[in-house]
Amino acid sequence: MASMSVPCAMTATMPPVTAQGTDLSNIIHRTITPYKPDGWRQALSSASLTHSFPHLVHDMIYGSPIWNPPPLTYTFTPPNLKSANIDPTYMDNFIKDELDSGHFDGPFSLEEARTVFGGHFRMAPLGFIEKPGSSAL
After folding, report:
1. Against a cut of 0.70, is the pTM above it?
2. Pair 62, 53: CB distance under 8 Å
């Protein structure tokens, strides 16, 4: 192919585009879990609780069966456990790291969370648990 010289060439410009907002009603359909099924299997077995939660590990790996639970009639948001205050800086950094890596969404106000969940919801409190044989939380 022969080359050709030209006095100038224009670069196409693109108009600025407004960033898309987050559709809070679709967040609930994302599945990102920090759970480690093998760890849960071992913990349930060593505590002799496998019979009490026979489907837990399977559902962690493959998802829970679809069914129609009764509707929630109130929002339950308990306070964090007292252990969450052991090291507030560590907790803040943990939450920031999870948000930055995309494992968590938010933070959301109660009204935004109701939009995400389509109504009432229940929360689990945050807290620390010491790892056996380690000083890590």
Report:
1. no
2. no
